[in-house]
């Protein structure tokens, strides 16, 4: 199993800003939780699309791992549609 990269490591690896690295990690964590909820509740992509107000093609793209042009807003809408509540914790950088 691959080791998870921190947002700082991801930023350096992909040569992107620290903020973009943090955003990518947050999106990945949210999508992972959504996928687990989809499995638990047996939601179809069409059902999530209806519940979130997003196009089914966008739901399918997001849940298949495409992060291009995926906003935090869209991922949060999917989380809500999957019966999840997201919380944010902020801590001092080490």
List the SSEs and their pairings.
Layout: H1 7-14, H2 18-41, H3 45-52, H4 56-63, H5 72-81
Helix pairs in contact: 1-2, 2-5, 3-4, 3-5
Q: In total, how many domains does the architecture comprise?
A: 1
C-alpha geometry: elongated
How far apart are the first and last residues' alpha carbons, in Å? 26 Å
Supply the helix-strand structural class.
mainly alpha
Mean pLDDT: 88
CATH architecture: Orthogonal Bundle
The CATH topology annotation reads as 434 Repressor (Amino-terminal Domain)
Concise description?
With 94 residues, the chain is an all-alpha fold. It has five helices and no strands.
Q: What would you say this structure looks like, in words?
A:
- The protein is mostly helical and 94 residues long.
- It has a single domain, classed as 434 Repressor (Amino-terminal Domain).
- It is 62% helix and 0% strand.
- It has 5 helices and no strands.
- Helix 2 runs parallel beside helix 5.
- The two termini are 26 Å apart.
- The mean pLDDT is 88.
Provide keyphrases for this structure.
94 residues; mainly alpha; 434 Repressor (Amino-terminal Domain); 5 helices; 0% strand
